[in-house]
Amino acid sequence: MFGRRRRGPGASRGLGRLLPLLLLLLLLLLGGAAGRIHRLVLTGEKRADIHLNTFGFYANGSLEVNVSRLHLGLGSAKQEKPWVGFSLSRTRIREALSYPGKESHNCTLEQNGAESRILFLIDVNQKRVQVRKLGEQKKLQIYSGLIPEVQNEGSDPKPANDSKAQAAASKGTETQQEVPGKGPNAGSPQKKTEGEAKQQDSSHRVEDLVLALGNVNDSYNFSFHVVIGSEAEGLYNLNFHNCHNRAPANQMPYDITVMIREKNPDGYLSAAEIPLIKLYLVMSACFLAAATVWVYFLCQHKFSVFKIHWLMAALAYTKALSLLFHSINYYFINTEGHPIESLAVMYFVTHLLKGALLFITIALIGTGWAFIKYILSDKEKKLFVIVIPLQVLANVAYIIIESSEEGSSDYASWKQILFLVDLLCCGAILFPVVWSIRHLQEASSTDGKAATNLAKLKLFRHYYVMVVCYIYFSRVIAILLKFTVPFQWQWLYELLVEVSTLVFFILTGYKFRPASNNPYLQLPQEDEEEGEELQMNQVVTEAGVHEGLSKLKKSRVAREAV
Questions:
Q1: Which residue in 19, 34, 29, 30 sits closest to 343, CA to CA?
Q2: Cα 535 to Cα 538: distance, rounded to the nearest angstrom
Q3: Across the chain, which distance is largest between two alpha carbons, in Å?
Q4: What residues form DSSP beta bridges with 53?
Q5: Which of 283, 211, 419, 89 is nearest to 411 (CA)?
Q6: How far apart are CA 520 and CA 452, in angstroms?
Q7: How do residues 352-406 score in pLDDT, each as one tens digit?
Q8: First-to-last CA distance in the chain?
Q9: Helix residue ranges per DSSP H, 89-230
């Protein structure tokens, strides 16, 4: 009885204090978010290999790359070998070239093999970009310049002091076929060579696999676009390489500004992301229906409802809202190429609340809070002090990853932080369940209530298996599925995660539903009955003592009256 007057854990109050700071962080980060139209600006960079992006292309998909500024160090610019450039490779998995320690001493731009890869070698001495195809290429068409409509809308403007760049604004991609001169006045018009005249045609297709390289104030610029043929569908990685920085002792800083635009025939989403719009919408409806049924069930059993039941309802509704905003966010990215900032903020807020509520609810159920006790032990309080900040850190890492470009210097670090923190949180939430199982095992053999405790022990063991299976399916099996299925079916990873989450929610609600015959909810009632029995024994004892005194007093009063 006295437990009902105790206050629950202060997790929600602590989360409420952090929410304004996280909202400010969201607004700052989303200012640089570009959706599927990427613009990466790196200054003072020293990495030898930079993974720029990964995208799944269908037939007639296109990739546009506009390098508006590439400033190399003096040592790199004087090298004879073209050790600076881009590579476009077809693969089954995402690249991780930007991870620390991933670099090797082999220059990717010099490798020759059967692997399907296209190299764009920047030759600063000849003022050209040589396109070299390695392996088997199936209907992969490379063109100089950007697609005309993209060049007018998304490309960075050329410097105003460049006469050739000013002419390019009116002539489209025509000047991309010209090779600038080597003199100091690199921006002045130059005569075309015989090979360049043959190269340029009405469609600006690169026949001799050579692109023009502009030079303005020691900064180089060029652009190209690739059209994916019907037999060239797949997952492609775009990387930048500066092999001069392979040796740690000879690293020289460089600056680069690049715009990347990827597009499929149906929109700006990658092949594996296109079905996610409908998937998230359908799963949002499923979680909303489950939450509504759960609230209706709680209203039908008001006398058996605890605070944790309403927390579970809040978690289900938050999950539904998060998926809804995620679906809307993907819709605008697919149609516009970038998210709507207000909707993106709503998605990140609901995602943050969902993540915090999920781990808090699982941990509270594992400790038995509000079901069998209203006070957390010291070690359980310490667990919440660890799990809640870790969850906040994991969500901050997720927001930074979603709002940053893959080629940024801190992208890989935050991705590693997210993986590590998520793994720690998944392991931490298992401890309360293990503690409760151990407590029930000891209680079943000491307090004489073996049948009741064994029923609770069986339920806790089931819950432990449920949590382990949920972590296994959503963290291990799903990732393995993502790396084994074809690129256009990688959305099954998200399907498995969401379906396993829904099944886990339903089973948890069923196991810990507010009902009189639920063995998990019998312990509070028995404790109350024991307390009432103890109070009744005290009352009866006190009544027995006073009963004799009352009879003696009544008999004496009766004698005096006679």
A1: 30
A2: 5
A3: 145
A4: 238
A5: 419
A6: 9
A7: 899 889 988 988 888 877 665 667 778 888 888 888 888 888 888 888 888 888 8
A8: 50
A9: 148-153, 163-171, 194-199
What is the rounded average pLDDT of the residues 178-207? 40
| Cβ neighbours for 48, distance < 8 A, ≥ 6 positions apart | 103, 241, 242, 243, 244, 245, 246, 251
* Residues sharing a CB contact under 8 Å with residue 308, sequence separation 6 or more, in sequence order: 361, 364, 365, 369, 370, 371, 512
What is the Cα–Cα distance from 131 to 120, expressed in whole angstroms? 5
Burial class, 292, CB count within 10 angstroms (exposed 0-12 / middle 13-18 / buried 19+)? middle
The two structure tokens encoding residue 313: 């309802």
Please check whether residue 358 is in contact with residue 322, taking contact to mean a CB–CB distance below 8 angstroms: no
Please give the structure tokens belonging to residue 271. 């092949």
- Its pTM stands at 0.76
373 DSSP assignment: B
Sign (positive or negative) of CA dihedral 342, 348, 349, 350: positive
Q: Which two tokens stand for residue 133?
A: 């195809």
CA-based torsion, 243, 245, 249, 254: positive or negative: positive
Give the residue among 342, 333, 324 at the shortest CA–CA distance from 279: 324
Task: Note the pLDDT of residue 425.
Answer: 87
How many whole angstroms separate alpha carbon 463 and alpha carbon 465? 5
Residue 449 dihedral angles phi and psi, to the nearest 5°: -115, 60
In the block, residue with structure tokens 């099954």: 492
R_g of the chain, CA atoms, integer Å: 33
Check whether 312 has a pLDDT greater than 50: yes
What are residue 471's phi and psi, to 5 degrees?
Answer: -65, -40
Query: What is the tens place of the pLDDT at every residue in 258-287?
Result: 999 999 999 999 999 999 999 999 999 999
Going through 8-93 in order, the beta strands assigned E by DSSP cover 37-45, 49-57, 62-71, 84-91
